[in-house]
Write a structure and sequence with these properties.
Strand content: 15-25%
Shape: globular
Order of helices and strands: EHEEHHEHEHEHEHHHHEHEEEEH
Distance between the termini: 7 Å
Bound molecules: L-homoserine
Oligomer: single chain
Structural class: alpha/beta
Strand order of the largest sheet: 3-2-1-4-5-6
Number of strands: 12
Length: about 325
């Protein structure tokens, strides 16, 4: 299977490092970062590209753009891992449309396009008989989409509750455990590389709300948007509020919640008992699904990170290889 990769941030590098380490039968024939690109239908030398990026050099020629790679490289699936623009979804939406229009499968970790243009992109994928997969957009390494699609495929999903933002969870954990101030904990989360480029997206609950929109549209196809999410962040929470919760054997977590039959779609800080399954520590994410047959299922795992997110992308790629691409 041949792939092209657009975006050489930590997720893009994590994917390439994984492909160097593991022989998965995936050949990379096109790569682009924000300044350059390279194409080779026989397979790009990934260690050289990774070493160039590590040393601050571009991944290829400045004369080759991301669009050139998407339009001209010889690939079966595009890996679109450019930074999220949650307001416009661009340029990622354009990249994805171009690849789907060329009848190429697309795997993305980019939340913007899926939250903003899901219906249109899904329609385009269907029209062109290719797959659009986005496991990495919600909760990093946790295989939520695969679980919904396969393990729980015979179930009706009544609702879901989750910790979908690692940065907020890290801040709340550190404030409660170490008595750090909000600013100190946020600074630590940024140093760990978990926070969005603009961390207000994390702490005001926007990132969790985007993930909730992606999940709701995937499960219920109900056409909800960010505007439909009732949202309160953690940016106004005080250390005193956390201390008071702790005194009652509880703690505070930013919980994303969707229950269509009650018209609930919200992200809010909630006081919950410390032994509740959603009380996960640090940057972990957790998601409880309420279903008719399996009843309650809770998934817990790393919500972000270079290799952890690559795990979700590789899972999508191998799914496409096994279900859509003739193996050679
Ligand atoms: N900023 C996000 C988080 C990264 O903290 O969960 C993963 O989407």
């Amino acid at each position: 299977m041949r792939v092209a990769l657009i975006g050489m941030g930590s997720v893009g590098r994590g994917v390439l490092e994984t492909l160097v380490k593991k022989d998965l039968g995936i050949v990379v024939t096109g790569i682009a970062d924000s300044r350059s690109g390279c194409m080779d239908s026989t397979g790009i030398d990934l260690p050289s590209v990774l070493s160039a990026k590590k040393n601050g050099r571009p991944c290829g020629s400045p004369d080759i753009s991301a669009t050139d790679v998407i339009k001209n490289a010889d690939y079966d699936a595009l890996i679109e891992v450019t930074p999220t623009n949650a307001c416009s979804g661009e340029p990622a939406i354009g990249y994805i449309k171009t690849a789907l229009g060329r009848q190429k499968h697309v795997v993305t970790s980019n939340k913007g396009p899926i939250a903003l243009a899901y219906k249109e992109l899904r329609g385009l994928a269907q029209k062109n008989h290719v797959a659009l997969r986005y496991e990495a957009t919600v909760a990093g390494a946790i295989p939520i989409m695969h679980t919904l699609e396969h393990g729980l495929s015979g179930n009706e999903i009544f609702g879901l509750y989750g910790v979908l933002n690692g940065t907020c969870n890290y801040i709340l954990t550190r404030m409660a455990a170490e008595g750090l101030t909000y600013d100190q904990a946020l600074m630590e989360a940024r140093e760990m590389g978990y926070a969005e480029a603009d961390p207000t997206y994390d702490v005001q609950g926007i990132d969790a709300a985007i993930k909730l929109v992606i999940l709701a549209n995937t499960i219920w196809d109900n056409g909800v948007t960010l505007d439909n999410v009732e949202r309160t962040g953690i940016d106004l929470l005080t250390a005193d509020a956390l201390r008071l919760a702790e005194e009652e054997g509880c703690t505070i977590r930013l919980i994303a919640e969707a229950i269509p039959r009650k018209n609930i779609l919200r992200v809010t800080p909630r006081i919950i008992e410390k032994n509740h399954p959603l009380v996960v520590e640090g940057t972990l994410n957790a998601l409880t699904l309420e279903t008719d047959l399996a009843k309650e299922i809770t998934l817990i795992g790393k919500g972000a990170g270079s290799i952890e997110t690559a795990s979700a992308i590789i899972g999508d790629l191998l799914f496409i290889r096994d279900h859509h691409v003739q193996r050679t």
